[in-house]
């Protein structure tokens, strides 16, 4: 939703009319997107390993396609831009059947299943990272970067300064699999030497059902910690951080790069095509991050990495500079230009 929001904001400023089509889950987060109208369609994932769910999913997609047909015929868009996931299927299917120009934006370093279905007929396949696994040969692949929210871009610091006294540690677990972060990191911090714990200032996104345990663990070892299920000002904490522990979703990796932060990334083990590991490799190859698989993300392992990294100011500064080289702060404008250019070359 964040890349869609950033693109919509950019195009709206240029005078475009924006409509958005998403499913019920996406509709909950669509209020900040400058689109009118916002159309809700039925969509569902389908897997051959679960035939009953596959049939139910196909029926929902069929209804979604009918909704998309009616709207697209009536609204007659100049172009349709898809950001992946099954809610994209109905509008992209209808648009390509009708011969409308389409653009796909893939946030991850692996082209998603739905995007692969439509990549061959898309005018442009834009990507958040330079490497794009599973991208079909012959498509017009353009690297734009991942459009980020204006608040993230505005909060990005100009320079990185390694910690001297206080060490700001920021842990963000994401919406999926946050229990691992919520429980493991406090236990790891508790294993650190006392002189290091005294310097730590921890801000951690923590699951609701793990809050009391996390807060108590930090309090027992004398570590200042702010633990909350959600931070509305995440950009402020990310900007102040000396080191970040987090998942490797596309937006997270892109935000860490823009902020120029050293990090430890823990890819979600259940992510489709293991795309979070591929995302994390973007920063690891630059020497800006460590990758720790979920199976190795134990208190002792995390403690060892924190000891190694937080006590090495030279590495922290090098890693911060390296991370920044992967940043693409102009991603939204680059993607908007691809949209405008495609419409100019394919007048309705």
**CATH class value of the largest domain:** Alpha Beta
Secondary structure: number of strands: 12
Overall structural domain count: 2
Low-confidence stretches: none
Which fold name corresponds to the CATH topology of the largest domain? Rossmann fold
What structural class do you assign from the helix and strand content? alpha/beta
Q: In the CATH hierarchy, what is the architecture of the largest domain at level 2?
A: 3-Layer(aba) Sandwich
CATH superfamily of the largest domain: Glycogen Phosphorylase B
Rg on CA atoms, Å: 21 Å
Largest sheet: number of strands, sense, barrel closure:
6 strands, parallel
What order do the helices and strands follow?
A: HEHEHEHEHEEHEHHEHEHEHEHEHHH
Beta-strand content estimate:
5-15%
> What quaternary form is this?
single chain
| Mean pLDDT value | 93
Order of the strands making up the biggest sheet: 9-8-7-10-11-12
Structure explained in plain terms:
- By secondary structure, the chain is of the alpha/beta class.
- The chain folds into two domains: 164 residues, 3-Layer(aba) Sandwich (Rossmann fold); 172 residues, Rossmann fold (3-Layer(aba) Sandwich).
- It is 45% helix and 14% strand.
- It has 15 helices and twelve strands.
- The strands form three sheets. It has a six-stranded parallel β-sheet, sandwiched between helices. Strands 3-4-5-6 form a four-stranded parallel β-sheet, with helices on both faces.
- Helix 9 links the parallel strand 8 and strand 9.
- Helix 1 packs across helix 15 and helix 7 runs parallel beside helix 9.
- It is elongated.
- The mean pLDDT is 93.
């Amino acid at each position: 939703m964040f890349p869609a929001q950033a693109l919509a904001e950019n195009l709206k400023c240029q005078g475009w009319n924006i409509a958005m089509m998403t499913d019920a889950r996406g509709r909950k987060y669509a209020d900040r997107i400058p689109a009118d109208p916002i159309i809700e369609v039925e969509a569902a994932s389908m897997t051959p390993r679960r035939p009953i769910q596959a049939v139910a999913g196909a029926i929902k997609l069929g209804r979604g396609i009918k909704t998309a047909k009616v709207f697209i015929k009536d609204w007659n868009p100049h172009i349709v831009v898809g950001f992946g996931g099954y809610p994209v299927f109905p509008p992209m299917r209808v648009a390509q059947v009708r011969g409308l120009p389409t653009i796909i934006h893939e946030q991850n370093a692996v082209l998603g299943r739905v995007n692969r279905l439509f990549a061959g007929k898309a005018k442009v396949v834009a990507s958040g990272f330079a490497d794009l696994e599973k991208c079909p040969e012959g498509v017009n692949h353009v690297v734009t970067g991942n459009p980020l929210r204006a608040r993230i871009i505005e909060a990005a610091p100009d320079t990185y300064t390694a910690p001297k006294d206080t060490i700001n540690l920021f842990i963000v677990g994401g919406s999926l699999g946050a229990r691992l972060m919520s429980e493991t990191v406090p236990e790891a911090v508790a294993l650190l030497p006392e002189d290091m714990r005294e310097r730590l200032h921890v801000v951690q996104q923590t699951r609701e059902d793990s809050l009391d345990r996390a807060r108590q663990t930090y309090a027992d070892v004398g570590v200042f910690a702010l633990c909350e299920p959600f931070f509305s000002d995440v950009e402020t904490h990310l900007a102040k951080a000396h080191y970040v522990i987090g998942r490797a979703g596309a937006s997270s990796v892109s935000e860490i790069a823009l902020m120029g932060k050293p990090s430890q990334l823990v890819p979600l083990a259940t992510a489709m095509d293991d795309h979070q590991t591929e995302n994390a490799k973007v920063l690891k190859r630059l020497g800006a991050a460590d990758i720790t698989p979920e199976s190795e993300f134990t208190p002792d392992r995390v403690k060892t990495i924190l000891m190694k990294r937080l006590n090495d100011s030279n590495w922290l500064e090098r890693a911060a500079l390296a991370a920044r080289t992967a940043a693409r702060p102009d991603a939204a404008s680059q993607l908007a230009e691809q949209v405008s250019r495609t419409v100019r070359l394919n007048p309705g």
